[in-house]
Write a structure and sequence with these properties.
- The structure is a single chain.
- This protein is an alpha/beta fold and 388 residues long.
- A 7-stranded mixed beta sheet has the order 1-9-8-7-6-2-3, with helices on both faces. A two-stranded antiparallel sheet has the order 4-5. A two-stranded antiparallel sheet has the order 10-13.
- A hairpin with a 2-residue loop joins strand 11 and strand 12.
- Helix 5 crosses helix 6, helix 7 runs parallel beside helix 8 and helix 8 runs parallel beside helix 10.
- The longest helix is centred in the C-terminal third of the chain and has 31 residues.
- It is globular, with a radius of gyration of 22 Å.
- The termini are far apart.
């Protein structure tokens, strides 16, 4: 008998199981509405022109080799990534209280941050500290914090199905009722999966409550630039919270806005109270990384770093990102127009009011019956989001 005969079969990860089913389906008109990836008309991820250019530059750079990167990652990548999130004029950067940890995608950045918080936030071994995630949220948020050891993961109100928008009243009520020092995972922009974001005025109210009640802010920023086409607009919430003096974490992903899905390029930006606190925080994160992946890979980080640190390449990248964002916005406009032209019941303004790659359609769960080969068949329509 195997030593592992009692290991249960784990259920497949739903979104990737859907991708596997998609690949096996032979239907000529199939469309993949699973994994959130920007795709061309041929259903392939778009390789950004600036990425192709930088990859050629790296190949021709004979000064490069395959030496290990530092445990915390490529320094010029980490600093550039944090600067993109916080802005060129960030006082937190000029005051030397911002640091970064190169991670394996946004998920890796979330996990390193979660592990650090479980060990060191507000005292040692904080398994009982409540962690709040939006309802709904990206399905991996719950798993990342649970696997890091947190025992109390709670939802906070976010989606109002009746008005097809943000449940702001429920959101702020949960903020007011949460125990002090609770951790809140906030989507910086292009909320996954609803596509609904707070307005700047609503963000200001959220900030005021979180500061007053001493709640910890952990931003997940996976779509900067990709949501609206503007790096500044998509980082508005992050930069406002930093300007208000918060100590916070930002999990950054460059999968979407660089099209580097398989390179797993992420960064955990840490905004600390002062330089001395930052130094101690990063020293503990270095220990966590050492026993997790030890040293991060270089290729994707070099692509992002070379791009962000060159004014010419940076400008070209922003243009590439705007191309993607504008196409997504156009698809939203066209969908809304076609629904209205067909006389589809209901209102569809929420399709264009939402932003980013995801949208809650507002369609209800219904059952339909039809005849197939003279036999009555019942099937369920339960469309809650679409991906462009």
């Amino acid at each position: 008998m195997s030593l592992f005969s009692e290991v249960p079969q784990a259920p497949p990860v739903a979104v990737f199981k859907l991708s596997a089913d998609f690949r096996e389906d032979s239907h000529p008109q199939k469309v993949n509405l699973g994994v959130g990836a920007y795709r061309t008309d041929d259903s392939q991820p778009w390789v950004l022109p600036v990425v192709k250019k930088v990859e050629r530059m790296i190949v021709e750079d004979h000064s490069l080799n395959h030496e290990y990167l530092p445990i915390l990652g490529l320094p010029e990548f980490r600093s550039a990534a944090s600067k993109v999130a916080l802005g060129d004029d960030s006082t937190a950067i000029t005051e030397h209280r911002v640091g970064g940890v190169q991670a394996l995608g946004g998920t890796g950045a979330l996990r390193i941050g979660a592990e650090f918080l479980r060990r060191w936030y507000n005292g040692v071994n904080n398994t009982a500290t409540p962690v709040y995630v939006s309802a709904p949220t990206w399905e991996n948020h719950n798993s990342v914090f649970a696997d890091a050891g947190f025992k109390d993961i709670r939802p906070y109100h976010y989606w109002d199905a009746a008005k097809r928008g943000l449940d702001f009243t429920g959101f702020v009520d949960d903020l007011e009722k949460a125990p002090e020092h609770s951790i809140f995972v906030l989507h910086a922009c292009a909320h996954n999966p609803t596509g609904t974001d707070p307005t700047p005025e609503e963000w200001k109210r959220i900030s005021e409550i979180m500061k007053r009640r001493q709640l910890f802010v952990f931003f997940d920023s996976a779509y900067q630039g990709f949501a609206s086409g503007s790096l500044e607009k998509d980082a508005w919430a992050i930069r406002f919270f930093v300007s208000e003096g918060f100590e916070l974490f930002i999990a950054q992903s460059f999968s979407k806005n660089f099209g580097l899905y398989n390179e797993r390029v992420g960064n955990l930006t840490v905004v600390a109270k002062d330089t001395e606190n930052l130094t101690r925080i990063l020293s503990q994160m270095e220990k966590i990384v050492r026993t997790t992946w030890s040293n991060p890979p270089s290729q994707g980080a070099r692509i992002v770093s070379n791009t962000l640190n060159s004014p010419e390449l940076f400008a070209e990248w922003k243009d590439n990102v705007k191309t993607m964002a504008d196409r997504v916005l156009l698809m939203r406009d066209e969908l809304k127009s076609k629904l209205e032209a067909l006389g589809t019941p209901g209102t569809w303004d929420h399709i264009t009011q939402q932003i980013g790659m995801f949208s809650f359609t507002g369609l209800n769960r219904v059952e339909r019956s039809q005849k197939v080969n003279n036999q009555s068949t019942t099937f369920t329509i339960d469309v809650v989001r679409w991906v462009v």
